[in-house]
Amino acid sequence: MQIYRVDGESDVSLDKLARIIFDIIEDTSRLMSSILSLYQRRILNIIYPGYKEEGFERRKYTVVISEKVKIEGKELSSEKMLDLLLKEPYVNEIKQIVGPIISYAKKDGLCLIDGSYGLLILGKVKNTELLSLYASIKSLEIFLEDLLV
Prior knowledge:
- The two termini are 31 Å apart.
- α1 runs parallel beside α4 (90-98).
- Helices cover 46% and strands 18% of the residues.
- The protein has 149 residues and is of the alpha+beta class.
- It has five helices and six strands, in the order ααβββααβββα.
- The longest helix has 22 residues, at 14-35.
- The protein has one domain (14-148).
- It has a four-stranded mixed beta sheet, with helices on both faces. The chain has a two-stranded antiparallel ribbon with strand order 2-3.
């Protein structure tokens, strides 16, 4: 999914992005619930006993890519991005998107912030196929953690 504009603005705030991602996760849970077979629902009920309860959300892994970052109207260079985003007040917004931060790195003009429930990539990504594979593996890892706990 690509987001070009929110509320008529081409720049999307971290706060709005966090809300959008939360809504997408909630909506995909409802969508999946409506298309699952009875057998698949039974499997989910075994793995996630609270699956049918209101407000229960299965953990999901998200990858968010942003080609640029602006703070107070100024576009940040990749050298300054991590230093600023990993400090208050921005770090709390980042945590809403990716969960507790596990690691972060700068490489090849990209800034990566890896969290328990997602990956935030800042910069132009050339190959998204590997990201898709990585997200699939991380999702499977989360599922196995839930299964074996």
